[in-house]
Amino acid sequence: MTEMTTIDTLHGEALARAADQAVRAIPPAWPLTATVAVNPFLGQISETLDNTAARLARIGGVRLALPRKYYADQIAKGEIIDEDLVAALQSSTLFNRIDLQALKAAVAEEPQPVAALPTIAELAARATGKDWPGLVSERIGTFAAGFFDQGQALWAASRRNGLYAAWRAFATHDLTPEILGLKGFSIHVDETPETPHGAIERAAVSLGLGAEPGTYFHQLLLTVGGWAQYARHIQFKAEVEGRTDTTALELLAIRLVFEEALYARHKAAIESEWQQVRRSHVEPVSPDFDTVIDGLLQVAAERAAQRKLAATLAAPAPIKVAELRPVLQAAFCIDVRSEVFRRAIESVDPAVRTLGFAGFFGLGASHKGFASDVSEHRLPVLLKPSVFSCSAVDHDEDADQQARFSARATRAWGRFKLAAVSSFAFVEAMGPVYAGKLLRDGLGFGKGKGPDAAKPRFAPSLDLDTRAVVAETVLKAMSLTEGFGRFVLISGHGANVVNNPYASALHCGACGGYAGDVNARLLADLLNDRAVREKLAGNGISIPADTVFLGGLHDTTTDSVTLFEDDLENDILPEDIVRIRQWLAQAGSLTRAERARRLPRATADRVIERSKDWSEVRPELGLAGCRAFIAAPRSRTAGRSLEGQAFLHDYVWKKDEGFKILELILTAPVVVASWISLQYFGSSVAPSLFGAGNKLLHNVVGGIGVVEGNGGNLRAGLPWQSVHDGENFVHEPLRLTVAVDAPKEAISDILKRHAQVRALFDNGWLHLFTLDEQGQMAWRYAGNLGWTDTRPSAASDVEQKAAS
């Protein structure tokens, strides 16, 4: 008896580990209120892209590659050359089996479509002709929409005792499966164990899985789409805060109950096929020949992009930075959209210089807006808030109270309009009143919500010493400890659009999917504080008395910049503000002209109108095209066009004592940029798994995400319109190239101490280079803490040795 109990315990522990691994293989998805880019391969960073492609071909039925015709066209146009193809072959362990000629021949042939292993629901559908997968998706989606609802539903589902318990209560009274032919389902649910772990164990026994389900659990979570990703987000957020959560695990248990019920009803018809599928799930994952070819072509495309980037960085500087004190220093987010604006404003006047730093500006703020009790975490989602702030109007409690009453009335009015008992009467009685609003919005005169007029301020608990430490830390991280200009603009960024559920996805990822105005204004106010400046001077950072820090907000849909000069306690001369506004306006005009060339049907003078057009599915292209991250002094990139495709982070390694700032850059901004890059990659090459589908078919559900049509799976990731213009890709899916101006030994030392970051580079999810004094991409990271010299002289030496 004891031995049997031990076996049962070990069996349960093995299943629990397998279920946890399956949950962690799913990427988290943030709600629409604060959407942030997420690496869809977050759970696979310990393996290579080829292995991940093989895994997702098995369980998702997708190839992680563009059609071969895309690469063939790139080769025909000379974008990818033989040098790139050979470099890809040399980087592969299968180099001896495939040569250049064979690779070129493979490009001309499209591979056969891949099919995922069938689930039990799909096997039952084949046997009976009924759409059981559709039923499962629809019933889970209906329940999940109510359970996860964030205020959109009129009657929210009970969340008592968690997801699984709430679903059992729902499913035991849900007659839809019975009506559609799944007889006895409610009784089956009623007889399931009361805990999700118990349900998983029972289903595993019923389905004959044993203790090792292989890739089956991962596949089941993929079949519920964005619901699994949203549940994973709840767990991810809990773990960042030091808590535990089992929501995603409970969703897996629910999906298994459906499989168990269908298997019990159709076992005789599907048993032999299921046994074969079960065996396939436990086989080792390994890439086939076509997957290897796809991987080689992907590397070749990335080598081509790196070759062009290297030529751009190594070219002589087109402009010389003046040695005189700048009139304006403008610090922008490292976001790729800022690269175009920075280049434009620097070209307007040599008295302007720019900086690049992560858009939350080092202030991990939890912020409450005016007349709001909602805490907005305006910082990268990997971090926890370190400071607290709010927007308030001094000595005006009436304004706060009035704003709260107005917000409640608006919410109540909205609910009344949608309620089942009043919606039809509302349209009959009040419909004509909305004619003006429909006409105004339809003609593009509507506008989105702008920033709070009220000035944000730190919580009183942030004493002077703490504020001085924060200021010093941020300035050092920005490499801005000397040479201050007369004015320093701290500019966050955001997007002001209408009729767009994905508006927050166009905001600042470093600010947690919010605009960056709050952080920019807080930092400007902090650095204008005389007491803080005195403390900084005592620590060797002397800010001139006449230097004024200004908060600003760059609207990336219109390329206009809002200045918050009213935040300043001391008046600023009108002519100074006029001059700065003129520079910003000129830069905005140049930036719109450049962006219009990429936006479908756009002209420079219509870019602003597009942001107000409620029928426009592409008010801007977000971070489409992102392909490089450069951490270096601005002199390395100033005046060089990087075409809005590079994250630019100012960094001077000779000022970085102990390489603490370098460590911060590699472990925070680079990781966030990799999430962005790989989300665009996944949404481009595997839109069925990692894309949000067609914007024209979207319906917002639960206030957290979208479905295509009227139900089913939540869709996470980027809409198709964000990566494709209807004819061509606007985003070329390339893994991010990271180029850092720092000694390779310092980088290796940091990678040694951060296994998760190292895994991104070792397994090829990111490429890593160092820059030398001449701006050349000198050393390529080869994995396992090794480096390869990539300078032309080194390449010539290799060629000479090979020839001899």
Describe the structure.
- The chain is of the alpha/beta class and 804 residues long.
- Helix content is 47%, strand content 11%.
- It has 30 helices and 19 strands.
- The strands form five sheets. A six-stranded mixed beta sheet has the order 11-10-16-17-18-19.
- Strand 8 (548-555) and strand 9 (560-563) form a beta hairpin.
- Helix 1 (2-24) packs across helix 12 and helix 4 (82-90) crosses helix 15 (289-314).
- The protein starts with a helix and ends with a helix.
DSSP summary, beta strand count: 19
Q: What Rg, in angstroms, do the CA atoms define?
A: 28 Å
Overall morphology: globular
**Assembly state of the chains shown:** single chain
User: Helix/strand/pairing class, anyone?
Assistant: alpha/beta
Mean pLDDT rating: 89
In DSSP terms (H or I, runs of 4 or more residues), the helix count works out at 30
Q: Would you identify the regions where 5 or more consecutive residues have pLDDT less than 50? A: 1-7, 415-423, 796-804
Biggest sheet character: 6 strands, mixed
How far apart are the termini?
A: 73 Å
List the strand order in the largest sheet: 11-10-16-17-18-19
Beta fraction of the residues?
5-15%
The percentage helix is 40-55%
Provide key terms for this protein.
804 residues, alpha/beta, 6-stranded mixed sheet, 5-stranded mixed sheet, 30 helices, 19 strands, globular, disordered N terminus, disordered C terminus
